[in-house]
Amino acid sequence: MTDRFADQMKREAGELGIALNGGQLEQFFRYYELLVERNKVMNLTAITEEQDVVTKHFTDSLSLVKLMGTEALAGKTLMDVGTGAGFPGIPLKIAFPELKVTLLDSLNKRVRFLMDVCEELGLENITAVHGRAEDFGRNLQYRERFDMCVSRAVANLASLSEYCMPFVKVGGDFVPYKSGEIEEELEAGKRAVKILGGEVEQVEKFTLPGADASRSLIRIRKMKAISGKYPRKAGLPTKEPLH
Ligand SMILES: C[S@@+](CC[C@H](N)C(=O)[O-])C[C@H]1O[C@@H](n2cnc3c(N)ncnc32)[C@H](O)[C@@H]1O
Protein backbone atom coordinates (compact mmCIF):
# COMPACT_ATOMS: atom_id res chain seq x y z
CA MET A 1 0.00 0.00 0.00
CA THR A 2 1.33 3.47 -0.85
CA ASP A 3 1.63 6.19 1.81
CA ARG A 4 -0.41 8.47 -0.42
CA PHE A 5 -3.33 6.03 -0.45
CA ALA A 6 -3.17 5.43 3.32
CA ASP A 7 -2.95 9.16 4.11
CA GLN A 8 -5.89 10.12 1.91
CA MET A 9 -8.10 7.26 3.08
CA LYS A 10 -7.33 7.93 6.74
CA ARG A 11 -7.87 11.68 6.38
CA GLU A 12 -11.17 11.47 4.51
CA ALA A 13 -12.57 8.75 6.81
CA GLY A 14 -11.30 10.74 9.80
CA GLU A 15 -13.25 13.79 8.63
CA LEU A 16 -16.35 11.61 8.88
CA GLY A 17 -15.43 10.57 12.41
CA ILE A 18 -14.27 7.10 11.34
CA ALA A 19 -10.89 5.93 12.67
CA LEU A 20 -9.50 3.21 10.38
CA ASN A 21 -6.83 0.83 11.67
CA GLY A 22 -3.95 -0.61 9.62
CA GLY A 23 -5.87 -3.77 8.72
CA GLN A 24 -8.82 -1.78 7.41
CA LEU A 25 -6.53 0.47 5.33
CA GLU A 26 -4.98 -2.69 3.83
CA GLN A 27 -8.47 -3.98 3.00
CA PHE A 28 -9.39 -0.74 1.25
CA PHE A 29 -6.16 -0.83 -0.74
CA ARG A 30 -6.64 -4.48 -1.78
CA TYR A 31 -10.21 -3.67 -2.81
CA TYR A 32 -8.90 -0.79 -4.92
CA GLU A 33 -6.34 -3.10 -6.57
CA LEU A 34 -8.96 -5.79 -7.33
CA LEU A 35 -11.32 -3.17 -8.75
CA VAL A 36 -8.72 -1.80 -11.16
CA GLU A 37 -7.40 -5.24 -12.09
CA ARG A 38 -10.82 -6.77 -12.84
CA ASN A 39 -12.03 -3.58 -14.54
CA LYS A 40 -9.66 -4.42 -17.41
CA VAL A 41 -11.74 -7.47 -18.31
CA MET A 42 -15.21 -6.41 -17.21
CA ASN A 43 -17.13 -3.18 -16.83
CA LEU A 44 -17.12 -2.32 -13.13
CA THR A 45 -16.47 1.41 -12.90
CA ALA A 46 -15.52 4.46 -14.96
CA ILE A 47 -13.54 5.78 -11.98
CA THR A 48 -10.13 4.14 -11.75
CA GLU A 49 -7.64 6.83 -10.73
CA GLU A 50 -6.49 6.07 -7.17
CA GLN A 51 -7.39 9.40 -5.56
CA ASP A 52 -10.78 9.45 -7.30
CA VAL A 53 -11.60 5.90 -6.19
CA VAL A 54 -10.86 6.89 -2.59
CA THR A 55 -13.03 10.01 -2.68
CA LYS A 56 -15.82 9.18 -5.13
CA HIS A 57 -16.31 5.52 -4.22
CA PHE A 58 -14.92 4.86 -0.74
CA THR A 59 -15.50 8.17 1.07
CA ASP A 60 -18.81 8.72 -0.70
CA SER A 61 -19.99 5.28 0.46
CA LEU A 62 -18.94 6.03 4.05
CA SER A 63 -20.88 9.32 4.04
CA LEU A 64 -23.84 7.38 5.43
CA VAL A 65 -22.46 8.26 8.87
CA LYS A 66 -23.34 11.92 8.22
CA LEU A 67 -26.96 10.85 8.51
CA MET A 68 -26.86 7.87 10.85
CA GLY A 69 -23.80 8.52 13.04
CA THR A 70 -21.21 5.84 13.68
CA GLU A 71 -22.87 4.20 16.69
CA ALA A 72 -26.10 3.41 14.89
CA LEU A 73 -24.33 1.20 12.36
CA ALA A 74 -22.78 -1.31 14.76
CA GLY A 75 -24.34 -4.76 14.49
CA LYS A 76 -27.13 -3.66 12.14
CA THR A 77 -28.34 -5.60 9.10
CA LEU A 78 -27.88 -3.72 5.84
CA MET A 79 -29.08 -4.47 2.32
CA ASP A 80 -27.38 -2.75 -0.66
CA VAL A 81 -29.61 -2.83 -3.75
CA GLY A 82 -27.89 -2.61 -7.17
CA THR A 83 -24.48 -2.64 -5.51
CA GLY A 84 -22.54 -3.01 -8.80
CA ALA A 85 -18.86 -3.21 -7.86
CA GLY A 86 -19.84 -3.03 -4.17
CA PHE A 87 -20.88 0.57 -3.47
CA PRO A 88 -21.78 1.60 -0.87
CA GLY A 89 -21.98 -1.84 0.83
CA ILE A 90 -18.34 -3.00 0.84
CA PRO A 91 -16.72 0.22 2.14
CA LEU A 92 -19.34 0.31 4.90
CA LYS A 93 -18.55 -3.31 5.78
CA ILE A 94 -14.79 -2.63 5.90
CA ALA A 95 -15.23 0.42 8.11
CA PHE A 96 -17.88 -1.22 10.33
CA PRO A 97 -16.94 -4.91 10.56
CA GLU A 98 -19.92 -5.69 12.80
CA LEU A 99 -22.44 -4.73 10.11
CA LYS A 100 -24.24 -7.71 8.58
CA VAL A 101 -24.34 -6.92 4.88
CA THR A 102 -26.23 -8.33 1.90
CA LEU A 103 -25.19 -7.11 -1.55
CA LEU A 104 -27.73 -7.56 -4.34
CA ASP A 105 -27.20 -7.08 -8.06
CA SER A 106 -28.96 -8.28 -11.19
CA LEU A 107 -25.68 -8.80 -13.09
CA ASN A 108 -24.10 -12.14 -12.21
CA LYS A 109 -20.59 -11.19 -13.37
CA ARG A 110 -20.55 -8.38 -10.81
CA VAL A 111 -21.84 -10.68 -8.08
CA ARG A 112 -18.97 -13.11 -8.76
CA PHE A 113 -16.52 -10.19 -8.49
CA LEU A 114 -18.08 -9.24 -5.14
CA MET A 115 -17.70 -12.79 -3.84
CA ASP A 116 -14.02 -12.76 -4.80
CA VAL A 117 -13.51 -9.41 -3.05
CA CYS A 118 -15.17 -10.67 0.15
CA GLU A 119 -12.99 -13.78 0.13
CA GLU A 120 -9.74 -11.92 -0.65
CA LEU A 121 -10.41 -9.33 2.06
CA GLY A 122 -11.46 -11.98 4.58
CA LEU A 123 -14.81 -10.27 5.19
CA GLU A 124 -17.34 -12.22 7.27
CA ASN A 125 -21.07 -11.76 7.70
CA ILE A 126 -21.45 -10.43 4.18
CA THR A 127 -23.16 -12.16 1.25
CA ALA A 128 -23.51 -11.24 -2.40
CA VAL A 129 -26.66 -12.44 -4.14
CA HIS A 130 -27.68 -12.38 -7.75
CA GLY A 131 -31.16 -11.27 -8.81
CA ARG A 132 -33.57 -8.42 -9.22
CA ALA A 133 -34.78 -6.37 -6.30
CA GLU A 134 -38.40 -6.89 -7.43
CA ASP A 135 -38.02 -10.68 -7.02
CA PHE A 136 -35.97 -10.66 -3.82
CA GLY A 137 -38.41 -8.20 -2.22
CA ARG A 138 -41.10 -10.89 -2.39
CA ASN A 139 -38.88 -13.58 -0.90
CA LEU A 140 -39.70 -13.97 2.81
CA GLN A 141 -36.06 -14.61 3.62
CA TYR A 142 -35.37 -10.99 2.61
CA ARG A 143 -38.69 -9.18 2.96
CA GLU A 144 -38.80 -6.75 5.89
CA ARG A 145 -35.65 -8.34 7.35
CA PHE A 146 -33.17 -5.43 7.30
CA ASP A 147 -32.55 -2.53 9.67
CA MET A 148 -31.34 -0.48 6.71
CA CYS A 149 -31.45 -0.54 2.94
CA VAL A 150 -29.07 1.65 0.93
CA SER A 151 -28.72 2.18 -2.79
CA ARG A 152 -26.58 4.42 -5.01
CA ALA A 153 -27.02 5.29 -8.70
CA VAL A 154 -29.69 2.71 -9.51
CA ALA A 155 -33.01 4.45 -10.29
CA ASN A 156 -35.12 7.53 -9.57
CA LEU A 157 -36.60 7.84 -6.09
CA ALA A 158 -40.09 6.57 -6.99
CA SER A 159 -38.82 3.39 -8.69
CA LEU A 160 -36.01 2.91 -6.20
CA SER A 161 -38.41 3.09 -3.27
CA GLU A 162 -40.36 0.18 -4.70
CA TYR A 163 -37.09 -1.77 -5.06
CA CYS A 164 -35.85 -0.96 -1.58
CA MET A 165 -38.72 -0.39 0.87
CA PRO A 166 -39.80 -4.07 0.86
CA PHE A 167 -36.48 -5.06 2.47
CA VAL A 168 -36.73 -2.67 5.41
CA LYS A 169 -38.16 -3.70 8.79
CA VAL A 170 -40.86 -1.46 10.24
CA GLY A 171 -38.95 1.23 12.17
CA GLY A 172 -35.89 0.82 9.93
CA ASP A 173 -34.50 3.15 7.27
CA PHE A 174 -34.11 3.31 3.52
CA VAL A 175 -31.29 5.66 2.50
CA PRO A 176 -30.81 6.47 -1.18
CA TYR A 177 -27.55 8.17 -2.18
CA LYS A 178 -28.31 10.91 -4.72
CA SER A 179 -26.38 13.44 -6.77
CA GLY A 180 -27.18 16.90 -8.10
CA GLU A 181 -30.39 18.80 -7.50
CA ILE A 182 -32.92 16.45 -5.92
CA GLU A 183 -35.90 18.71 -5.14
CA GLU A 184 -37.94 17.67 -8.19
CA GLU A 185 -37.12 13.99 -7.76
CA LEU A 186 -38.03 14.20 -4.10
CA GLU A 187 -41.35 15.86 -4.89
CA ALA A 188 -42.13 13.29 -7.60
CA GLY A 189 -41.17 10.38 -5.33
CA LYS A 190 -42.92 11.46 -2.12
CA ARG A 191 -46.19 9.77 -2.92
CA ALA A 192 -44.48 6.50 -3.85
CA VAL A 193 -42.61 6.62 -0.53
CA LYS A 194 -45.92 7.07 1.32
CA ILE A 195 -47.71 4.28 -0.58
CA LEU A 196 -44.82 1.99 0.37
CA GLY A 197 -45.17 2.79 4.07
CA GLY A 198 -42.39 5.35 4.36
CA GLU A 199 -41.86 8.94 5.39
CA VAL A 200 -39.04 11.26 4.36
CA GLU A 201 -37.41 12.18 7.64
CA GLN A 202 -34.23 14.04 6.73
CA VAL A 203 -32.19 15.17 3.74
CA GLU A 204 -28.45 15.61 4.24
CA LYS A 205 -26.66 17.58 1.54
CA PHE A 206 -22.90 17.54 1.32
CA THR A 207 -19.92 17.77 -1.01
CA LEU A 208 -17.03 15.33 -1.22
CA PRO A 209 -13.48 16.47 -0.32
CA GLY A 210 -12.05 18.59 -3.13
CA ALA A 211 -15.25 18.50 -5.20
CA ASP A 212 -18.08 20.96 -5.87
CA ALA A 213 -20.72 18.48 -7.01
CA SER A 214 -23.65 18.29 -4.67
CA ARG A 215 -24.47 14.93 -3.04
CA SER A 216 -27.49 14.04 -0.91
CA LEU A 217 -28.54 11.29 1.42
CA ILE A 218 -32.25 10.92 2.11
CA ARG A 219 -33.41 9.21 5.28
CA ILE A 220 -36.73 7.49 4.73
CA ARG A 221 -38.23 5.85 7.81
CA LYS A 222 -40.44 2.79 7.35
CA MET A 223 -43.54 3.61 9.35
CA LYS A 224 -45.73 0.60 8.58
CA ALA A 225 -45.63 -2.81 6.93
CA ILE A 226 -45.72 -2.75 3.17
CA SER A 227 -48.81 -3.85 1.23
CA GLY A 228 -48.63 -7.33 -0.35
CA LYS A 229 -49.06 -5.61 -3.73
CA TYR A 230 -45.44 -4.41 -3.68
CA PRO A 231 -43.00 -4.76 -5.24
CA ARG A 232 -44.84 -5.27 -8.52
CA LYS A 233 -43.40 -7.64 -11.07
CA ALA A 234 -39.90 -7.08 -12.44
CA GLY A 235 -39.65 -4.06 -14.72
CA LEU A 236 -42.87 -2.32 -13.63
CA PRO A 237 -41.34 -0.06 -10.94
CA THR A 238 -39.24 1.65 -13.63
CA LYS A 239 -41.72 1.40 -16.49
CA GLU A 240 -44.65 2.71 -14.47
CA PRO A 241 -43.28 4.37 -11.30
CA LEU A 242 -45.81 4.84 -8.51
CA HIS A 243 -47.13 8.40 -8.36
C1 LIG B 1 -25.02 2.38 -12.19
S1 LIG B 1 -24.78 0.90 -11.32
C2 LIG B 1 -24.44 1.50 -9.70
C3 LIG B 1 -23.61 0.55 -8.92
C4 LIG B 1 -23.21 0.99 -7.50
N1 LIG B 1 -24.38 1.09 -6.64
C5 LIG B 1 -22.46 2.29 -7.52
O1 LIG B 1 -22.96 3.29 -7.01
O2 LIG B 1 -21.34 2.34 -8.08
C6 LIG B 1 -26.42 0.21 -11.16
C7 LIG B 1 -26.41 -1.25 -10.71
O3 LIG B 1 -27.73 -1.63 -10.37
C8 LIG B 1 -28.00 -2.92 -10.85
N2 LIG B 1 -29.46 -3.01 -10.99
C9 LIG B 1 -30.26 -2.28 -11.80
N3 LIG B 1 -31.56 -2.62 -11.65
C10 LIG B 1 -31.59 -3.59 -10.69
C11 LIG B 1 -32.65 -4.34 -10.07
N4 LIG B 1 -33.92 -4.18 -10.43
N5 LIG B 1 -32.32 -5.24 -9.12
C12 LIG B 1 -31.02 -5.44 -8.77
N6 LIG B 1 -29.99 -4.76 -9.31
C13 LIG B 1 -30.26 -3.84 -10.26
C14 LIG B 1 -27.19 -3.02 -12.15
O4 LIG B 1 -26.89 -4.35 -12.51
C15 LIG B 1 -25.94 -2.20 -11.81
O5 LIG B 1 -24.90 -3.02 -11.33
From TrEMBL:
It comes from the Bacteria. It is an enzyme of class 2 (transferase). It is found in: Cytoplasm. One of its GO terms (cellular component) is cytosol. The gene is rsmG. Keywords: Cytoplasm, Methyltransferase, rRNA processing, S-adenosyl-L-methionine, Transferase. Its main location: cytoplasm. It comes from Enterocloster lavalensis. The lineage of its organism: Bacteria, Bacillati, Bacillota, Clostridia, Lachnospirales. This is Ribosomal RNA small subunit methyltransferase G. Gene3D superfamilies: Vaccinia Virus protein VP39. Belongs to the methyltransferase superfamily. RNA methyltransferase RsmG family.
